[in-house]
Amino acid sequence: MIADSFGRIHDYLRISLTDNCNFRCFYCMPEEEYDFTPASRLMQTDEIIKLAEVFVANGVKKIRLTGGEPLVRKDAAQIIAALGKLPVELVITTNGTRIAEMLPVLKEAGIKTINISLDTLQPEKFFMITRRDVFHQVRSNIELLLQHKIKVKVNMVVMKGLNDNEINDFISWTKHNPIQIRFIEFMPFSGNKWTSNKMFSLDEILSVVEKDFTVLPVKGEPHDTAKSFMIPGHEGSFAIISTMTNPFCDTCNRMRLTADGKLKNCLFSDSETDLLTALRKNEDVLPLIQSAIWSKKKALGGQLVSDFEKIDATTIQNRSMITIGG
Length: 326
Prior knowledge:
326 residues, TIM Barrel, globular, GTP-binding, iron, iron-sulfur, metal-binding
């Protein structure tokens, strides 16, 4: 069992397979020229498996693979197959571009839920955000997952003046499709030029939805990061991840392992624990894991204040989103 000093049990591990990505989304990747981590500094296939086994042996029940874009890694299929044999729930967050070619591997590994990052339903705006002309490919792959009875959650980062006018378009998408839309408050990370006036809050999102739809709250699970809702007559549902205005820190059970083998005890933490170097020296990594989680701050990595309008993103000591994995 892995616990922090506040009694929170950590049984959910997010593993970033790579900081590389075939998209160039501005809110995730720094605007300046970005140098991806060289292969020698990344966790190798066997190292990912070994570290995952340590976490699972100590109570981890769920593993999420993230990136960058996890499916662009050349050995992604091998990693997914190996992790699929562990006694955990295995899920993936992806931009959806490589779903078709990876589908047999995903199904064989027993993956039942996939999160797709999609911030707009407009092809032109999609290109503006991602700098890639693959909107229809992503939509097609979402349909493919639904055809194969794999649960789809669509992650949409809501940004004022960019895509907040599409909130109800996403809601309408759930009318005849069993998907969950997850509206995410825009969060500050290194290089993403976050400001409070770009953020669209939980209350603002609900206000927009309630103008056109009847919204009913849905009781969530104990460690949910999102507040869930349903709309009568819709096959799908929606949820809101309100990290900035209503964080879920009190029930957080998450740990993050970066692609270069550093353990982050919080998405917003400015500290990291190097597990990869210890593993390569054949040292016991469990004490490092336990110490890192025990030192976790009570809320928001100890860096952010509860009043998001007072946050100065330029003072935050952290990685860019692409190197953390969300």
